[in-house]
């Protein structure tokens, strides 16, 4: 009994202490879709930089695979820990709603970043670029590289990745403007470069008239480019898509990839933490206003009706500018 | 050097139990030395020590006059001591050839296995034993158990064994296979091999052994040239008391047959089987393994569908689709191979006894009445004198005889009308055997109909009121009263072919 | 005698799988002209190399009655080590040794716990899988490895006589281990251990050493497969090799190796890997919707095993 | 003291209990926010879905004959999709949809069971095949024509649907109190007290002896696989309600985790041995471990590794202690 009392005392003391310590700095958490991939690493880097500049505590934690259920569990535990703000890149925009609602009820600032979700609950969405603009830009880049005609394929990643599917939908919408282009198939290669290579090699064989391909995510874009080079089709088939410069540079330089699309994820991470601090400090964003954020290269714009802060237009990387962005 | 193998004052204990208390044992080259004793007498412990599976606590072993330390089965084999186990330890998926040579391959200069020379050697070996050798490349699993055992003997010879231990070799052999084995053992003896022979069947020992050592309670109770003892003396030393070979029966045979089988056929196993079985009667079924006895019993029990023929049970025609249905009608079947078909080794004693009667213990919604379950188990443990620490003891830790009693208890607990016993006393010690015999007689006296399959002629003669003899799937004789003689039965049962399994005949 | 010998071949499970492969090849060649093209077949071989190399070791492990679900993460770990060293500019030979070594150490660790710790293989390797994944994340820290120097990539991409070099290596490995399993005493001991451990112990086979050996070999082979992976893709990501274990196990099991132990051949596993590979390849060529790929693979697995079962029944009666 | 230790080593359930208490005390002392009523009740919900799958795995493994169900994750997924599509896209009554989903789970489990029992194909192969098949079907069901040929999650459920996964009674999550605990009690009754449980252990420890004892081996096995399907379906329903979204990728990789937990709980891979108490403790330990480590701010990466260490370590420790005792 005595020992139990001692244990209880220690526990209470630790609890109290942690509460006191928590008061010292804002604790801002960012939960990516998954950890251990270059894209979110870049966001983490940006977040860390912002935390240093703004003197807040930055917590970066997420599931090791893009697992919705695990992500929710992690957010729930962040609520238990009593952080001040949670920003999420949700694996499923709807699934995230209940737990974010709970966070909000506990007085936590709730945001989404990179991918939107829980629109009626979250306080802010930090958006890298508008969904339709991303889809359109990718399609335009492909069309330009293919000289506006011929067959092309899409190699996507997880067949259920929500934002990839949305982008594909916008790409197809844009396709209407290019009547001489034809989509032959959509294939899935998970988040796995080797699988993307395999799938693309099979596609090259299956569709001899293939002229272009979209690698829909950061693993499939270098994968399809690699496959084209392995098959010796560089120059006949062009690849584009969404990926990070450090992995695409090789293919841009060899000409297999003319251009590809992304944004600056370091800036996105920075902006997320900056915006959280801004709101925690009691500030409000104004509609249509472009903000000057020290440390990032674009001027983010606030759209009040969507409670959305947009980093900027999607960025097109090609041989002319890729060397400046090799750090992510 | 008088003895090829000599054990002096061997002691061995497990936990607190003293299994061997200063055992002396000797073996000459060119003799068959029988080792007898009840289960738990220490035979197997001694054998395990000689074959390297166990190390003695104290005592010395001399091999060819030199002290040796046999610390592994491999070591034993290397110095020339081989063991043929009761249940042959084989690689069923590998070829006969590999079963012989595995662990001691003949190699080419490159270190590869030299299949050709292995086959040559095996062929000449088999020829010298008078065995055919066309099946050397077949998987071992396709051979009959008897043949497998002969292959293992050949294996011992490949190891140039000077001592071969036979651990109850005939327990799973047919009469005919046993004869074949004895011929080979005599041949080996004449070649100068020392043979240790363990068996529960005393009649065999008188036929094959030169010397006999009797053990009881971890000690040697006597060692004699075989000509200097008789059966009664050995039994007395083994059991400490004389066993009666006659059994008292009250003879309360009913008027109407409980089971009536007419023209039952399931090709190629058995053809046109007809017999009646009355309440209170023990009907013996004799025949070689593979003669179809077990198949008839299992077909009646609902494990197989017959092609034609009728079965009447308790006055009406039946055709059971599963053992479940047969049991519900009142038939119990004690299977032949208790380890494989009878026991749930990792479950408790209580579980094993009550599992067949659970349906009667169900109260509501499929929930079992645990108290009744325990009562039934306790009752049978008492009645069959099963030696177990408690009800929850897992069955695998009991001795062979007690395991067999547990299986029997399992079938008795259902209080059937017809009890089919398939080799009820195979491989168990004399005392337990006798207890089980008495129990069977007692049950029949209470009006139970018993169908008893056995390969042991003495058992059949002792127990049965009538004997049905089968050969190659057909009934070749039914004997009763004064006609029920060993000579008649053997004549009906023997064909000149050995049992054939998996298409490999000998 | 030859007649029964031939019948025995027909009865083998490998034959069923081979039959299915032939059937599919005919089907695909008739329906798409692209299937029989050199480039497509060469692709197929390229894609299969990693699976086939690991399947050699997995076959041996399963023959002993064991299983290794950590093979995917072993491959991943080895490719992380190889990738790091390659980018660091170390000699390809050293890289080869360290990839093999990484796999070997992992295999030895698995084997030691299984053989000497008496822990069931599924538990050891499930645990190992999580531990390795954890270490891989830690080593990479989320940064993927790219920019693998071209010298090493010959293993993954180069061709000799029109056949990928990785496939030549695979063929050599398969030939060697088939010979090893059929003609070397230790090879036969692997079957013995899986078929009847008790008998193996009595006939003087060192069970522990044999067990340790098969896991070590599988580890080393998975390590080598990791190197082939790096050489092929030129990129090492954190989840390299995830899900690979089921692919390898499926190939081995489909190829007729009994998961109860004691039976199986490497050729069978190779055929199993081919069957799955051809199905996937054919479905792309026929442009069957990607989502139903699993449906077809699953149904074919059941079908191919079912054919065996039915035939075995037919023979018995 | 030594005898107490011996007893613990021999009794896996007790061993797990000691491990559980030890972990609990360590977390309670060292992790802020752990030892609160809120956290202790809140974390239980994360053990439910995987827990149900582990229980399913326990039943199947117990039935012996190489029993294993690799398809539990896929069955969970497809049931989640069926319920999701029926409610969210077809607009069927939620209760009816859930019922249909559970029936579908039972049906798929039944199919596994029939294939295992009546064709003689090993469970490992049957369920490996159905893992692929059910997963693929889930993807096909999930295709939403409005978004082209892509499978999409479903998330427009009526508020009432969230009751199971998101509501609480006296602070305790509804699904824990009203589904998980009753399921555990029912399974306890089934395994420990009922005739079916007796038969299951019998079939698992010796299939032949069970047949000769008049037990219908096939029926027992088919029942077990069907139960596995039902438990997976329940799990699929709960997870859909909890995360408010039916996803065709939700159960990926759950099968190996479920097997891990069942084995950690002391279920013997050979069948016939293992208890529900052990498996429940296995679930509790894993749930506790994840929660404690997350609250302590330990990197996710280490959580994965620690699962492996706990699994191998606990079994190894048990074996080593057992071996030492024997000498």
Automatic annotation (TrEMBL), chain A:
Location(s) in or outside the cell: Cell envelope
Endpoints of the signal sequence: none
Any one Gene Ontology cellular component term annotated for this protein: outer membrane-bounded periplasmic space
Chief location bin: other
Lineage: superkingdom: Bacteria
Transmembrane segments: none
GO molecular-function terms, A-Z: carbohydrate binding
UniProt cross-references to SUPFAM superfamilies, sorted A to Z: Periplasmic binding protein-like I
Domain Periplasmic binding protein, first and last residues per copy: 28-283
Cited Pfam families: Peripla_BP_4
Family: Belongs to the bacterial solute-binding protein 2 family.
UniProt protein name: Autoinducer 2 ABC transporter substrate-binding protein
Originating organism: Candidatus Caldatribacterium californiense
TrEMBL record, chain C:
Membrane topology per record: Multi-pass membrane protein
Localization in the cell: Cell membrane
InterPro entries on file: ABC_transp_permease
UniProt-recorded Gene Ontology molecular function terms: transmembrane transporter activity
Domain of life: Bacteria
UniProt keyword list: Cell inner membrane, Cell membrane, Membrane, Transmembrane, Transmembrane helix, Transport
GO-annotated cellular components: plasma membrane
Pfam families: BPD_transp_2
Transmembrane segments: 15-32, 44-63, 94-116, 122-140, 160-181, 212-231, 252-279, 291-310
Entry function: Part of the ABC transporter complex LsrABCD involved in autoinducer 2 (AI-2) import. Probably responsible for the translocation of the substrate across the membrane.
Matching PANTHER family: ABC TRANSPORTER PERMEASE PROTEIN YPHD-RELATED-RELATED, AUTOINDUCER 2 IMPORT SYSTEM PERMEASE PROTEIN LSRC
Record note on quaternary structure: The complex is composed of two ATP-binding proteins (LsrA), two transmembrane proteins (LsrC and LsrD) and a solute-binding protein (LsrB).
Protein name as it appears in the record: Autoinducer 2 import system permease protein LsrC
Lineage, top ranks: Bacteria, Pseudomonadati, Atribacterota, Atribacteria, Atribacterales
């Amino acid at each position: 009994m005595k020992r139990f009392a001692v244990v209880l005392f220690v526990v209470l003391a630790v609890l109290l202490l942690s509460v006191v310590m928590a008061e010292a700095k804002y604790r801002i958490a960012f939960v990516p879709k998954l950890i251990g991939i270059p894209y979110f690493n870049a966001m983490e880097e940006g977040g860390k930089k912002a935390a240093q500049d703004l003197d807040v505590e930055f917590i970066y934690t997420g599931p090791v695979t893009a697992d919705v259920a695990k992500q929710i569990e992690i957010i729930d535990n962040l609520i238990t820990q009593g952080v001040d703000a949670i920003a999420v890149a949700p694996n499923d925009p709807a699934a995230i709603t209940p737990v974010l609602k709970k966070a909000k009820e506990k007085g936590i600032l709730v945001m989404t970043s990179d991918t939107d979700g829980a629109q009626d609950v979250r306080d802010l969405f930090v958006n890298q670029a508008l969904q339709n603009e991303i889809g359109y830009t990718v399609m335009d880049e492909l069309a330009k590289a293919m000289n506006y005609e011929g067959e092309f394929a899409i190699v996507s990643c997880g067949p259920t990745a929500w934002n990839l599917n949305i982008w594909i939908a916008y790409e197809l919408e844009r396709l209407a403007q290019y009547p001489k282009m034809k989509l032959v198939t959509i294939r899935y290669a998970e988040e796995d470069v080797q699988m993307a290579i395999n799938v693309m090699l099979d596609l090259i064989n299956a569709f001899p008239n293939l002229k272009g391909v979209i690698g829909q995510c950061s693993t499939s874009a270098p994968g399809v480019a690699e496959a084209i080079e392995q098959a010796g089709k560089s120059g006949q088939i062009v690849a584009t898509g969404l990926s990070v410069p450090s992995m695409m540079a090789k293919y841009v330089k060899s000409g297999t990839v003319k251009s590809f699309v992304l944004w600056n994820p370091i800036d996105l991470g920075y902006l997320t933490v900056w915006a959280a601090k801004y709101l925690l400090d009691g500030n409000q964003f104004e509609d249509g206003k472009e903000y000057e954020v020290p440390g990032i290269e674009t001027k983010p714009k606030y759209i009040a009706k969507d409670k959305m802060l947009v980093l900027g237009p999607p960025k097109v990387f090609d041989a002319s500018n890729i060397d400046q962005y090799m750090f992510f | 050097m008088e003895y090829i193998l000599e054990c002096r004052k061997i002691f061995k204990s497990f936990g607190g139990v003293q299994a061997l208390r200063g055992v002396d044992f000797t073996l000459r080259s060119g003799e068959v030395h029988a080792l007898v004793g009840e289960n738990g007498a220490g035979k197997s412990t001694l054998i395990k020590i000689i074959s390297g599976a166990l190390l003695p606590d104290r005592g010395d072993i001399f091999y060819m006059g030199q002290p040796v330390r046999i610390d592994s089965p491999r070591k034993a084999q290397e110095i020339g001591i081989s063991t043929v186990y009761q249940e042959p330890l084989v690689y069923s998926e590998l070829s006969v050839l590999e079963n012989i040579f595995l662990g001691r391959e003949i190699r080419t200069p490159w270190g590869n296995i030299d299949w050709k020379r292995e086959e040559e050697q095996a062929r000449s070996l088999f020829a010298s034993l008078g065995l055919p050798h066309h099946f050397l490349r077949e998987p071992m699993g396709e051979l009959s158990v008897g043949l497998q055992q002969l292959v293992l003997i050949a294996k011992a010879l490949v190891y140039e064994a000077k001592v071969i231990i036979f651990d109850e070799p005939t327990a799973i052999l047919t009469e005919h296979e046993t004869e074949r084995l004895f011929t080979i053992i005599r041949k080996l003896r004449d070649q100068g091999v020392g043979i240790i022979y363990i068996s529960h069947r005393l009649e065999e020992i008188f036929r094959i052994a030169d010397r006999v050592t009797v053990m009881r309670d971890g000690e040697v109770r006597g060692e004699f040239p075989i000509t200097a003892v008789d059966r009664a003396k050995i039994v007395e030393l083994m059991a400490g008391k004389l066993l009666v070979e006659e059994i008292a029966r009250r003879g309360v045979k009913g008027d109407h047959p409980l089971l009536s089988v007419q023209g039952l056929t399931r090709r190629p196993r058995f053809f046109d089987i007809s017999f009646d079985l009355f309440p209170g009667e023990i009907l013996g079924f004799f025949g070689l393994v593979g003669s179809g006895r077990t198949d008839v019993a299992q077909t009646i029990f609902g494990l197989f569908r017959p092609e034609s023929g009728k079965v009447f049970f308790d006055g009406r025609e039946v055709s059971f689709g599963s053992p479940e249905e047969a049991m519900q009608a009142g038939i119990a079947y004690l299977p032949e191979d208790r380890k494989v078909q009878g026991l749930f080794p990792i479950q408790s004693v209580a579980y094993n006894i009550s599992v067949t009667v659970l349906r009667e213990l169900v109260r509501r919604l499929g929930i079992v009445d645990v108290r009744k379950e325990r009562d039934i188990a306790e009752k049978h443990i008492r009645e069959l004198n099963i030696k177990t620490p408690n009800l929850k003891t897992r069955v695998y830790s009991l001795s062979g005889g007690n395991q067999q009693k547990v299986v029997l208890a399992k079938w008795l607990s259902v209080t059937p009308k017809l009890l089919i016993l398939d080799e009820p006393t195979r491989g168990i010690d004399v005392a337990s055997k006798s207890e089980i015999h008495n129990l069977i007689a007692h049950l029949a006296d209470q009006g139970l109909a018993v169908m008893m399959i056995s390969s042991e002629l003495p058992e059949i003669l002792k127990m049965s009121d009538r004997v049905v003899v089968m050969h190659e799937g057909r009934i070749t004789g039914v004997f009763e009263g004064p006609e029920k003689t060993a000579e008649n039965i053997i004549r009906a049962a023997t064909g000149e072919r050995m049992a054939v399994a998996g298409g490999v005949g000998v | 005698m030859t007649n029964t010998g031939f019948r025995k071949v027909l009865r083998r499970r490998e034959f069923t799988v081979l039959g299915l492969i032939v059937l599919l090849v005919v089907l695909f060649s008739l329906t798409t002209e692209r299937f029989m093209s050199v480039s497509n077949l060469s692709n197929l071989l390229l894609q299969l190399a990693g699976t086939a190399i690991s399947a050699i070791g997995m076959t041996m492990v399963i023959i002993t009655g064991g299983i290794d679900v950590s093979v995917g993460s072993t491959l991943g770990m080895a490719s992380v080590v190889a990738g790091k060293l390659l980018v660091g500019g170390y000699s390809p030979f050293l890289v080869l040794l360290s990839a093999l070594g990484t796999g070997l150490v992992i295999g030895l660790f698995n084997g030691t716990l299984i053989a000497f710790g008496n822990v069931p293989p599924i538990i050891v390797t499930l645990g190992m899988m999580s531990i390795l994944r954890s270490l891989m994340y830690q080593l990479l820290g989320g940064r993927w490895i790219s920019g693998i120097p071209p010298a090493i990539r010959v293993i993954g991409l180069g061709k000799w006589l029109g056949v990928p070099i990785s496939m030549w290596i695979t063929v050599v490995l398969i030939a060697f281990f088939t010979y090893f399993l059929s003609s070397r005493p230790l090879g036969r001991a692997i079957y013995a251990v899986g078929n009847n451990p008790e008998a193996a112990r009595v006939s003087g086979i060192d069970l522990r050493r044999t067990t340790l050996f098969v896991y070590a070999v599988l580890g080393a082979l998975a390590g080598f497969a990791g190197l082939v992976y790096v050489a092929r893709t030129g990129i090492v990501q954190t989840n390299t090799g995830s899900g690979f274990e089921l692919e390898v196990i499926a190939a081995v099991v489909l190829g007729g190796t009994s998961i109860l132990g004691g039976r199986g051949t490497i050729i069978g596993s190779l055929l199993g890997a081919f069957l799955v590979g051809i199905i996937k390849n054919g479905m792309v060529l026929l442009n069957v919707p990607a989502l139903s790929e699993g449906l077809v693979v699953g149904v074919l697995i059941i079908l191919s095993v079912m054919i065996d079962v039915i035939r075995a029944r037919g023979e018995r009666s | 003291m030594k005898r107490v230790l011996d007893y613990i080593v021999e009794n896996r359930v007790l061993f797990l209990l000691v491990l559980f208490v030890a972990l609990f005390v360590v977390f309670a002392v060292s992790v802020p926010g752990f030892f609160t009523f809120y956290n202790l009740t809140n974390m239980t919900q994360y053990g439910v879905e995987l827990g149900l799958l582990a229980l399913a795995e326990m039943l199947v493994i117990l039935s012996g004959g190489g029993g294993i169900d690799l398809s539990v994750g896929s069955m969970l997924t497809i049931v989640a999709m069926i319920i999701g599509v029926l409610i969210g896209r077809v607009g069927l009554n939620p209760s009816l949809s859930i019922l249909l989903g559970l029936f579908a789970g039972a049906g798929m489990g039944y199919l596994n069971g029939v294939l295992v029992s009546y064709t003689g194909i090993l469970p490992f192969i049957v369920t490996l095949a159905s893992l692929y098949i059910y997963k693929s079907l889930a993807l096909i069901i999930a295709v939403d024509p409005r978004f082209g040929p892509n499978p999409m999650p479903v998330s427009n459920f009526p508020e009432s649907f969230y009751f199971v996964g998101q509501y609480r009674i006296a602070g305790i999550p509804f699904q824990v109190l009203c589904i998980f605990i009753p399921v555990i009690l029912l399974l306890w009754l089934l395994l420990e007290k009922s005739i079916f449980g007796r038969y299951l252990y019998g079939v698992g420890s010796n299939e032949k002896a069970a047949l000769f004892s008049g037990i219908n081996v096939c029926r027992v096995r088919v029942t077990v696989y069907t139960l596995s399907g039902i438990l997976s379906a329940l799990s699929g329903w709960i997870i859909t309600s909890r995360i408010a979204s039916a996803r065709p990728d939700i159960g990926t990789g759950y099968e190996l985790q479920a097997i891990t937990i069942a084995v950690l709980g002391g279920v013997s891979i050979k069948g016939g041995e293992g208890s529900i108490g052990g498996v429940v403790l296995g679930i509790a330990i894993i749930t506790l471990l994840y929660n404690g480590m997350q609250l302590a701010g330990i990197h996710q990466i280490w959580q994965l590794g620690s699962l492996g260490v706990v699994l191998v370590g606990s079994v190894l420790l048990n074996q080593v202690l057992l071996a030492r005792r024997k000498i």
